[in-house]
Amino acid sequence: MLKNKVAVITGGTRGIGYATAKLFLDNGCKVIIFGSRAESVDKALSQLNEENPNYPVEGYYPNLNDYEEVEKTILAIAEKYGKIDILINNAGISSSTPIDQYTVEEFEKIINLNVVSMFKCIRATVPIMKEQGEGVILNTSSMVSISGQPSGVGYPTSKFAVNGMTLSLARELGKDNIRVNAVAPGVTETDMFKSLPEPLIEGIVSKIPLGRVGKPEDIANAFLYLASDMASYVTGEVLSVDGACRS
pLDDT tens, 62-103? Predict the structure, then answer.
């Protein structure tokens, strides 16, 4: 579905990002993953090479809060591959700190990575996509961007902003043949989720109409659809992948 495409995936070393990278590779895409540090990137690349030594994948670890570093990396990728077809902004962090314990520093850290760094990656990539005459930008939102969450206000605030940026850029960039969409995962089976006590997991699952938590592959499938030509007339959408869990 993505034969000969080139995709950059931030937060691509584990969880949803890693599953998306693998699925894209299986569908003929050349993939560049971004991680937070060299060790995590090297580990992810090693795992992918174990899956298939012929995967066309490489990784970088730019500081996503440093625009000059982001732009330099994006331009180097475009020069090497001749294009960037797909940008997936998946890097992000969460928290559940109550408001009366929330520090300004914690709030700013979440906003900076989940929103500001996403803007920086998009800002560096859009001129390349405009010049080549097409492109796809996909952003990782969350179910809490629709319903909010009981504590940890920084995370849902950031994801509401992700939705706003997605819808606005879809309207702005449509004339340039650049589609912009987001995927809003629900509760997903990540390493953090697996470490929760079993009774707590059972309580969470009981609130999901489909009766299970999502797998990273479920979210990756949504990204694959939106990145492919099957979604050529889909832009400005926030696709919920949450088993109908809305709270």
Answer: 999 999 999 999 999 999 999 999 999 999 999 889 999 999
What CATH number does residue 220 fall under? 3.40.50.720
Q: Which class for 203: exposed (0-12), middle (13-18), buried (19 or more C-beta within 10 A)?
A: exposed
Residue 128 has pLDDT above 80, yes or no: yes
In a domain, 247, yes or no: no
CA separation for the pair 5, 59 (Å, rounded) = 16
For residue 183, give the H/E element and its range.
Answer: strand 178-185
In a domain, 28, yes or no: yes
Instruction: DSSP for 11-78, please give it.
Output: T-SSHHHHHHHHHHHHTT-EEEEE-SSHHHHHHHHHHHHHH-TT--EEEE---TT-HHHHHHHHHHHH
Mean pLDDT of the chain, nearest integer: 95
Domain membership flag for residue 45: yes
Residues serving a catalytic function are 155
**DSSP of 118-173, one letter per residue?**
HHHHHHHHHHHHHHHT-EEEEEE--THHHH--SS-THHHHHHHHHHHHHHHHHHHH
Q: Is residue 246 part of a domain?
A: no
Return the structure tokens found at 163: 């939705």
Instruction: Give the number of domains in the chain.
Output: 1
Global pTM reads 0.96
Domain coverage including residue 196: 6-241
Q: CA 228, 130, 165, 17: dihedral to nearest 10 degrees?
A: 40
- The β-bridge partners of 6 are 30
Longest dimension (CA), the chain: 53
Name residue 98's amino acid.
Answer: P
